[in-house]
Amino acid sequence: MRWWKSKSGQIQKYTEQSDKKQESPAPFTGDFTFDLELVRQEIGHNSDVHFREFNIGRMSIRAALIFVDGLSDIDLIDQHIIKSLMSDFPQEYKKRKIFIKDSTLKEFVKNHILSISKVKEVHNTKDLALEVLTGSTALLIDGSVGVLILGITKGKTRNIEEPVSEALVRGPRIGFTEVLSDNTALLRRHGQNENLSLTKFQVGERAKKELIIAYIKDIADPGLVKEVK
Which GO terms of type biological process are on file (predicted)? Predict the structure, then answer.
């Protein structure tokens, strides 16, 4: 297939298709660096999307977690995923040489390492973006064609109440809080669209404040977005 002659060419081709609004989901290849770059091109422009790279089991097997700040539970990521995956695997599993095949490693991680209940698998960037931008966490493992999706959505940090000065007769009775990450998470939850883009920047000279520009990528005028930035 001519799509796979050049990895750099493949990324460029998918980008060109996106510009023409004829994008096809980019499938994962098992090449960690290449697949991670595909994900960065798909959702990496969002300031609330985070990438955490590390090695699995002290065995120089590269992996990465992709999650959204405010939607994914950071405590669960730290304690039940990163800590478990970075710990050394039991010797009995190493003696069996189960890591010869990368697909076996993925199944081993899924069935023996991850202590969470909701785990599924996706095979292209489109499906990954839909899952991550709605609160799930993606686990990308070097050599694995499929990416594991971990259901560790963050719970509420405080009750979101109806704005006092902007009461509505119809529609959701919720308002923004004083915490920026909670507000971006609120936008993600109620505007579930993979084209919702959030760009963070700072204003002010002495007391710097963080602001977020939120827009729908395929609807907003790029010139207007650039002018606002």
Answer: spore germination
For residue 27, give the nearest of 145, 194, 150 by alpha carbon: 145
The residue whose two tokens read 């959702």 is 43
Q: Which residues contact 11 (CB under 8 A, 6 or more apart)?
A: 26, 34, 37, 38, 41
**Domain boundary assignment for the chain:** 27-150, 180-228
Q: pTM above 0.90?
A: no
